[in-house]
Specification:
By secondary structure, this protein is an alpha/beta fold. It is 26% helix and 27% strand. It contains five helices and ten strands, in the order H-E-H-H-E-H-E-E-E-E-E-E-E-E-H. A hairpin with a 5-residue loop joins strand 8 (138-142) and strand 9. The two termini are 25 Å apart. Bound molecules: glutamine (GLN). Glutamine is lined by residues 34-37, 67-68, 71, 96-97, 125-126.
Amino acid sequence: MREHELMLGSLGAHVVRVRRVEDLDGIDGLVLPGGESSTIDKLARAFALREPLIARIRAGLPVFGTCAGMILLADRIIDGIEGQQTLGGLDVTVRRNAFGRQSESFEADLDIAALGRPPVRVAFIRAPAIEEAGAAVSVLAALPDGRIVAAEQGAILATAFHPEQTGETRFHERFLDRIAQRS
Ligand code: GLN
């Protein structure tokens, strides 16, 4: 969360934290950060944010989800906890904790054509992965085994990894570009 705030701030954005429904009124874009997706789901419901968030995402609010945030944006989830719900918007099936115990956390250099050179250095932390994506989804990055780890659909951008942890700014710039295009 803090890393996202610092990075967006350094790129010129004014960042506020969304805690209550009213906080959604003034925002032009939303970051769904890492954390624990089942907890974020429970909190979103407890604070009556779930339905307003779904409505804003449907209405085309630019959203950037990292890790748990990617899970929340997926239309379908595998290996969620009992009763876990997502907000949806991204026509994908995501597997939670896709990398198992052996490789819970690792860094990787990914070639992402949409971002150009150099390759993207990113951190995976108990990361999810997309196992299936609908036709409207553009795949930005996949691992050699075919699992998708960065994707886009309309104003939604999602990464299984944390670019904010490695000083990689290009995803955040892309997210801010989406916001600029809309306003
Ligand atoms: N494993 C977490 C989840 O299920 C995601 C981890 C993360 O966001 N770094 O939500």
